[in-house]
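Example 3.2
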Amino acid sequence: AAHRTFWRFFFLTLIMVNLRSIFRHLDATLPKYMTREFGDKVPKGTIYSINPFMIILLVPVIAALSQKWEHFDVIHVGSYVSAASVWTLAVDTSIPSAVVFVVILSLGEAVWSPRLYDYTVSVAPEGKEG
């Protein structure tokens, strides 16, 4: 059972690395994209600030509401929401679509992020949680 738990955690972490690459896009390439597409006056800092604002507000609420669900299920749903966020930029090139991208990405992160930490602690061997 311990090996199964380890491999499940290993593959989840591997998948999450790919998901986290979307956040590198948010930090590294989205500001440059918005400047090139919409000019120097685009409010890229304001658009970026949607993410921490939503995380601060939503994480405690969603974590409390999702306590009764399995860690893996909540991570799964939140990951799909975050992954779907990039499609808003593929469908439309506009400032509103960039805002929707950040909102959807942040909503998904607020769902999966706290539960990933809970799951990490829950699979750690007794006495090696931290």
